[in-house]
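Weekly structure sync - notes
Attendees: PM, LS, DV (DV joined late)
Agenda: review two folding runs queued last week.

Item 1: First target. Sequence and structure tokens pasted below for the record.
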Amino acid sequence: MPVITSDIDPDHNALVENDSGAGGDFPWEQAATETHVLDHVLKPPTHGGGGGGGGGGGTTFPTQASDTQPGPTFDTNATINKNYFIPPDSTSAAGKEAILVGVNGVIEEFDRTAGVDTLTPHALGFALDDVFKSATGFLGSAFDPHIMYDPTSDRFIVVAVDQNATNKTSQLLVAVSNNGTPHGAADFHAVAIDANAGGGSWADFPQVGLDSSGHIYITANMFAFSGGSYTGTHLWVEDESNLSASVAGATVPSTGTDDFFSAAPTYDPHGTGEFLVSYNSATDPVTGDNVLHVVQVNPNGSLGTEQTVDLKAKIDQLTTFGGISVPQPGTSHTLDGDDSRTSLAVMQGGHLYVAATILPTTGLDAGHATAHWFELGVDASGNVTLLNQGDVSGNTAFSGSGLRTFYPSVAVSTDATGNDELAISFSTSAPQTGTIYDGFPSAYEETIDPATGASTLGWQLLEGGLANYTRTFGTHDNRWGDYSSISTDPLHPGQYWAFNQFAETQGTSLMGETGRWATELGLFS
């Protein structure tokens, strides 16, 4: 019988006390307090070109991704690992021979056909826990997965965390595939690292980066077992070719207690520099401008001097760790848009790219959840400066739509002339649905020229939502996200594989709720 499991982040409860979509306190580990028989398993939806299935009849969407493939769903997840999960935490990476996607509970691999952009699902998927079951001391309930691909070694990296509140134990989980086509859990080598280190805290919301030498950089927010307070961000550095369970975590130093909350390590497989970058709606006490925090990291885990990057304006109405609630059609139940933390930073040729969700202070989207991207320049000495930034504007893409854009992730390619192209994957939702856009919780992508901020191809649809979504497992928190994913195709620069969730048709009634998430993988160019 599948178990109802909510991936409840304690950082959200401890730090977002006034979020109208999430406020209050509830346990950060929802154990198997209720079980339900899985009545049926629904095949993930496959809609025709142009996204004709989303948002109701008569809706005409922008160009849809090519070679779309359905990924894990709320129901298939429960079939594979016997757990219902919210939120899915959509993660993926594109390799030369395969695409690997994952959600809380399940990993799925798609084989690539050589020379063409055609994918074949190898199987329905395999349990995330099985990836780490060979690790000595594994506690048995991995969550918050992140997937990354190393094009040099042709291996996939999977990172997650696990914890046991009763025993006050916490683990950082790291697995590396044996090859470029990991068809199952047996194709991974894994270690479980003690994330507690006797400090009375546990690790949450891990993020992962990579350099050209195969060093894996992992951060996690740490929370006290007693009281749940945030105790800092830790960094671990693993050697991809020689995983060790004895790697010690180091607290990321900062001038403030929360400068590097949810710090994102950079993905830089072709360079040598590695940085941590964090945004949390903080402002400069003198100028009032919003700021980013950046610090350089060495392969031995030592860090350089923290740099504060002034964003030249007050771009964000949110206060530090302010919560984000997102409306959807046909219901007063909002989606939890989490907060303004950064996720999935990318380095390319001395430029650092990252995105976050903000509430703009001005413009067409003022006060609405809006994905916002940053381009930073990094010189030979590691000094970081702001080059450009911009919004992924729902009201610019579809005038008067009120579309919110949130949970962004980024990828980047360099064209033949040496210019970067930025691709952004993100979720959307609006108070109502329309004839040229889908107001239900959906997944889109946009490519941008970061030098000018101009959209190069406009919005492209990954998958349109089919209904509004409510799934709280008896709490007050209608979780969505907690992130999306997108990666550059290592065989075809300028093409991108995005993987994200959308709202499936309602069904599978549990505790009086019928919202269901599903995921989709698609190619954009």
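Item 2: Second target, run right after the first with the same settings.
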Amino acid sequence: MTRPATHIIRLLKWGRTLGRHGALRGIERDPNTPPAVRRLSRIARFGARQSAQPDYARAFQEIGPAAIKLGQTLATRPDLVGEDAVRNLLSLQDSLPPVPFAAIEAQIERSFERPASDLFASIDPDPVGAASIAQVHKGVTTDGRTVAIKVLRPGIREKFARDIATYEWAAAHLEALGGESARLRPRLTIANFKRWTNRELDLRREAASASELAASMRGFPGYAIPAIDWDRTNGRVMTIEWIDGVKISDIAALKAAGHDLPELARRLVLAFLTQAISGGFFHADMHQGNLFVRPDGTIVAIDFGIMGRIDRRARQWLAEILYGLTTGDYRRVAEIHFEAQYVPPHHSVDEFATALRAVGEPMRGKPVSELSVGQMLDGLFAITRDFDMQTQPHLLLLQKTMVMVEGIATQLHPAINMWDVSAPFVKNWIRDELGPEAALADRLREDVGTLLRLPALVRRLEERYPPRGGAPEPPPLPEIELITRRREGGGGWFGYVLAALAGAALFWAGAHVGWPL
């Protein structure tokens, strides 16, 4: 276990880097910052020359790989770090200088325990991408297929484990301060971050995620997932189909290729809604660098290290919330928040509905280009504070991905109205999943399942209470205190001696009276 002094030294070192880039200024000025955190920030930046404008992205990039991933996670938490920090963190690029090819080739051979030439006819030594956790090389398999080879950076798992241990220690102490720090649940945020990064650090799980998403999206035209080469994939190396296409962020190239940009924007939004609401399993790292457009117009997603999952009940709540916001039914949206226990029951449903109306009404019927995301977030997070809503970490990935999808869709089609695109899909899903037919089908499914479980229940009862055999029931036996059960305290042995003497006296008296012995 890491000593507290080690955690403190790491935090002060990271804090000094943040201080040089002016990234502690907002923490020190925020009235909600606990005094202890404010004092630690001042100690960390003591003597450092601060930049004129805070540059959170540059600071996290300088601290290292785990900090880059943490910064991307915090970019989904304006309630935790502030709107200005979020805007800056959204520019955080997950890129680092590449590892020398010799180390990558050694990693491949060590993980497969065989020469790389047995698996690949050739590997381009220059990576096509180098991120904080892994880097990707283009290669050709021994059977002639062009593939992308993703390889973990050597030693990255150990480095992440050290840094995350300090994040957990800091989050626990921050939450223990109570008040606003406890409401924002930083420990749960770090726990989710740890789970996400552990998934990214096992490339077999990423390959499995890609395979599962491909199966769930098979019926959605115009959206594809690269095929996995399982024979050349393990925990540290993943091999997938190579994608030839235009990055979805290259608007000029898309126009030159004759693609319908408004249609691409609409299809991207619907693909995300299909994944998140219909399937409950979605690509949660849908930024511009992970989406390509093939010559036939198919959108292809890559990089499946971060995936989100939502259970069916939460999806029903989410769909009703989205539909309520698009139709202006704020009362129903408020009721769902209380049903899901997102809002403590001592608050008023009507007051919460009015607060939602104040945020939602200015947004309805307007294209994204005319909306002030800053004002909307300010309003939403004011509501969370006023109504004592705890952060729901299981929805953080969804929130992050929604922001990414909205940003890309707006670049493709600035006049897109997200409500107009989303409403028909959500309405149909609610009809199919929450309508009378669906309710009847759910009830039949549950009741049939209960009936099918009855035989197993009867068998367990028979095992617990077996039938009587041919022998008669034995008579009840008296409870006898055993000598091995010592009583606490003194005098235990005296009782045993007294009982022995009494027994001997009865034996002697019985012998003289003539009792048969």
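Discussion on item 2: The longest helix spans residues 436-464.
Action: LS to circulate a short write-up before next sync.
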